[in-house]
Amino acid sequence: MSKSYGNVLDPNDLSELLTTEGLRYFLLRQGTPQDDSNITIPKAIDLINSELVNALGNLLSRCTVDKLNPNQVYPTFYDEVLKSTLKENGQQLVDGLNSLAENVTNCYDNLYFYRGLEPIFEQIRSTNALLEIHRPWNMKEGSELSTILFISYETIRIANILLQPIVPEYANKSLSRLGIGDKERSLETAIFGGLQLDGRKLGKNCGNVMARIVQIKETTPLKKKKKSSKAA
To answer: What Gene3D superfamilies does UniProt report for this protein, alphabetically (predicted)?
Structure first.
């Protein structure tokens, strides 16, 4: 970008279109310390919708609905269900959550934010896949449903603790929905079962954490071109 070429981005316009949190996320998710990023509106919208709105936002929404959690409390984990029913898929998720904070913070500390965000969303995608395999919405209340929900809630909780430096408002809304207090959001708690939450009341449902950003029709780069002052 250069003023002489007239393609300087206006952050105010960008944040209005993508939301402040969305713009912040996109820049840190795509930007690398050594390379310039090629920013286009469709690319930004697709990434924000795909990861923040769909993958993580929808995971929170569908796991906390009354149909799956009529009492609106943090579910209970049953180790025997993990071993007998969920087996390798479930254990891999738990192991991944236990190592996630260290992996992510190492990347953050070296300013490789995009590298830190990738394993977070790998865990989220794996959790969504677990739900598709076991389809908890077809289950009756019991230990299997409770364990699947617990793993899902822990994925959401740990992911949002690690997202606090990136999208603080988004993370705050998500953690508040799970009933996680302000003093319970430290890195030390970002492990599977890191807090005693079984049976705790969930927070108020305030709707979607982030609204879907509407895709524009044009595929022009995310920039404003100045009109040439030279005569045609």
So the answer is: HUPs, Isoleucyl-tRNA Synthetase, Domain 1
